[in-house]
Every structure is written in structure tokens, then in C-alpha cells.
Amino acid sequence: MKIINLCFSRRTIEEIISTLVRLGDGWSFDESEALDKKDEWISSTIQSLKKASPTSLKISLRSIREGRLQGVGSCLVREYQMACHVLRGEFSKDVLEGYRAIFIDRDRNPKWEPSRLELIRDDDVDRYFSKIDDEDWEDLKLPPRLDLPRYAIAKL
Known about the structure:
- InterPro entries: ClpP/crotonase-like_dom_sf, ECH_dom, HIBYL-CoA-H.
- Hydrolyzes 3-hydroxyisobutyryl-CoA (HIBYL-CoA), a saline catabolite. Has high activity toward isobutyryl-CoA. Could be an isobutyryl-CoA dehydrogenase that functions in valine catabolism.
- It contains seven helices and no strands.
- The protein has helices spanning 2-8, 13-24, 40-51, 54-67, 72-88, 94-104, 122-126.
């Protein structure tokens, strides 16, 4: 848990990966606690992050961070909006490329665009959190739940 908190409390996905890499190379955040260079969890986590779409990593991290401060209803609306942008492919075709690499060609070698984290600007990520610019498109609207028992109401 200490390693997870150390790594995933970083501000950006680049910093998260960098911290994982340093830990995998034997860097220790606590002198009394030596890390095994062959830590399987760290290695597999680095590999998973490096294989993933750079755009999806940045979008996901931002969504998780924003979700900490929101209620469930707001999170569902935000996630729906993000998913709609992703599936519409207006800003990136990474979902289609991932399907191609896994299900169609089965080469498991997606060509992400952009291909590196540093090529994705904050305003690129912002677009996934914006209202969909289509008059025929409706945002998710959750019905009000006035009949919930007191214990079921979010405390945050």
C-alpha cells in the first residue's frame, strides 16, 4: 500500500510512471526498506501503463482526480460525457485502434495517436470533459431520488 500511495499520489501520469520506474530500478523511498529490483507488481504495472493509450491514461487520471470531489451522480454524468467523446472519435481514434489491434488484426500492437504522453496537452484532455457540440445529442440526466433513506445519501 505504501508503494501504491507513493506512486499514484503523483500529480501527472508521467510522474507516476517515473516513480514506478525508479522503484523498479531499486530506488528506495525509505532507507530502512530495500526494494527487490524484480518486484513483479511494479514491473507489470509499468508494462501495462506503457502499453495503454497515452490519451486514455491522461483522461482516466483526470477523471479519477475530479471524481474524488464529486457525488456519484456527477461522476456518472462526467463518465457518460467522456465515454461519448471517446466513442464518437472526434479527438482520437484510439478506441478503434485498440479494437483493431486486439480483435481484428490480433497483432496486439496498437498505434496510438498521439503516441507519447508528452505530446498530449492539457487542452487536449479538456475536450473530453466538455459538453458535446451536437444539437441532437443529449447529456445524461439522472432522475432526482427524493425517496432515499438517510443512510443511502452520500456523505461527501
